[in-house]
Specification:
Layout lengths: L12 H10 L5 E3 L11 H4 L3 E5 L10 E5 L25 H16 L1 H22 L4 E2 L10 E5 L5 H10 L19 H5 L4 H5 L1 E5 L6 H14 L3
Parallel strand pairs: 1-2
Antiparallel strand pairs: 2-3, 4-5, 5-6
Helix pairs in contact: 4-8
Length: about 230
């Protein structure tokens, strides 16, 4: 994982790629969270393969891409047709492919400005929650994290109950990975960090996009002050 989808931590991918290269291991990274949020030079980092998903940067859902280094041979995913350089048989969704390419182009046109805006919201959120909610624990690295990611655990709080309270106030957030939204088990990521089950179940993941504003953050913080004591 280039960057973790729950706690936002940016991994030392270049060092991992170097270790793999020294052992002649092909290196693949899941770049879904990182692409469109970070500058990525696949050659400089030493990435052999990287998967991305368009919905993370405003492309249609259901379209993604696999970067492969020139000369890297992999087994076919689907056999039969000659589409996708014979690696994945089936008619291509041309409209979604073009949309994803355009969305990615737009995301990188103003990357520095866009990510700085999200970092400002992120850092203020971390400070405000740390200062105003006793026992709140920031999960993940303090600054080596995705520009729009904030993840906190709160003692004596059930994450799913907190999410319902926020949802009733018109705020969309999550308690862990969107992939595991139907699971009642605490996040395996938070457990791996050493949190006990109670704290892991009391987690809140907030993610900002480039369309969010400081007014949105003011509303979020005011709502947390209202609902957390309940």
């Amino acid at each position: 994982m280039f960057a973790n989808n729950e706690i936002g931590t940016i991994q030392p991918v270049a060092q991992i790629a170097q270790l793999a290269k020294e052992k002649q291991i092909i290196f693949h990274t899941d770049g879904v969270q990182a692409v469109s949020n970070l500058e990525i030079d696949v050659k400089k980092i030493g990435i052999d393969a990287m998967s991305i998903s368009g919905h993370k940067f405003h492309a249609p859902k259901g379209i993604g891409a696999l970067y492969l280094k020139n000369g890297l041979a992999i087994e076919n995913l689907l056999h039969g047709g000659s589409q996708e350089r014979e690696l994945r048989a089936g008619t291509e969704n041309v409209a979604a492919i073009v949309a994803m390419a355009k969305a990615l182009e737009l995301a990188y046109q103003n990357l520095a400005e866009r990510t700085q805006k999200m970092k400002t919201l992120r850092d203020r959120t971390i400070k405000e929650i740390s200062d105003n909610f006793q026992g709140a624990k920031l999960n993940g690295h303090s600054n080596r994290r995705l520009p729009g990611n904030v993840n906190f655990s709160f003692p004596k709080v059930e994450g799913d109950v907190l999410l319902m309270q926020l949802d009733m106030k018109g705020i969309s957030a999550s308690s862990g990975s969107a992939c595991s939204s139907l699971s009642i088990e605490p996040s395996h990521v938070l457990l791996a960090l050493g949190l006990d089950k109670a704290m892991a179940k009391g987690s809140l993941r907030i993610t900002f996009g480039d369309e969010n504003t400081s007014a949105d953050l003011d509303y979020l913080l005011a709502t947390l002050k209202e609902v957390l004591p309940k």
